[in-house]
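The pair is set out directly below:
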Amino acid sequence: MQSRASASPQDYRGEQTLATALRQYEDARYSESARNLQNAIYQGLSDKDRVTAHKHLAFIHCASGREGECRDEFGRALDIDPKTELTRAEAGHPRWGPVFRSVKAAR
């Protein structure tokens, strides 16, 4: 992971956009959150933050009934870090918990 001193201004912009997206997610502003999660990924993030962005995109897709896109986003998170896990609360969610377990088991 890059230190703040060695991070480019673009990396910092990605972090800012991710923070905005996560606030929007918490405020149930899912369309805006999804747009900013994608923007943050394109702007540049650390691997850990990219996993977070892809997980939240997966949550949004699953909650919206888009299981294929949900699976794709979980797959992207696992491509970055195969050891990715959901928190206990996330794993217990009835929509995305089973999808995540299925995607992870298939790897």
Notes: Confidence is low (pLDDT under 50) at residues 1-6.
